User: Fold Putative ABC transporter ATP-binding protein YbhF from Pseudooceanicola marinus.
Amino acid sequence: MSAILEIRDLRKVYDGGFEALKGVTLDIEEGEILALLGPNGAGKTTLISTLCGITEPTSGTATVAGYDIKTQYREARKLIGLVPQEINLEPFSYVETNLHFSRGIFGKPRDTAKVEEVLRKLALWEKRSNRVRELSGGMKRRVLIGKALAHEPRVLFLDEPTAGVDVSLRKEMWDVVAELKKQGVTIILTTHYIEEAEAMADRVAVIRGGEILMVEKTGDLMRRLGRKELTVELREPLAEIPAPLAEYDLELSADGLSLTYRYDTQADRTGIAGLMRAFSEAGIILRDLHTSQSSLEEIFVGLVEGEGEAQ
Assistant:
């Protein structure tokens, strides 16, 4: 799979000296979903705005399907669809008109069938003659997505696309994104809903302070940085951790009825076999045991707080 978006040492310095992007280098493959995660002020929106031609980079280069975003910006921009965070629709405009207008902006001929296809895909067809002001917040965000798709882009930027959308509509939008991926559209997603990245993204890029900390396949990131916990439920409560178990990193619950053991999933030895022998030697009878693994949200929090390192 080849890269459709190639970013090299991209920098953005605003008047006053604030450096919003500090040499971002990143390849985004055609047809993939990349989740761009980072805290507020990390540089996510600045990076998207720069790639979409809304703001100009101070230095560095970026190409979309080989077109330079500065020297060939018209060709590059035609290949990009953008769904911004803010709902910036004309309240008295009609839903269908918004999509026709977007096609025209990008030099696409009027195509009633294509607009209908997009509206149906987003469950907006029945609302096509409504004014924007008559729609719910979730429906307005669908119109934004429709506008971004109307000119048939190859790369789609979704900047917090489900902000303010209820759970059911959010899941429907996940289905829309999955369908776009099947059609070969490359999607770059920024979100504060970590479960979106975990559920949809092929890869995760973590940005902090204008720098990319790491880029990794979602599953690999979970396996590499995720920690597992083994919780052992006891038949009888313990007042303290017995001596035979002292060498293990165990945490006793407040009621004394369970012990938690944390271990690295990538370690050569987890230590679980030895722990089980130690329980037997100490005469402790187990009632049950189960494991759990760190979520991507926990991993992300660790990274942005500086606990994880890119490798």
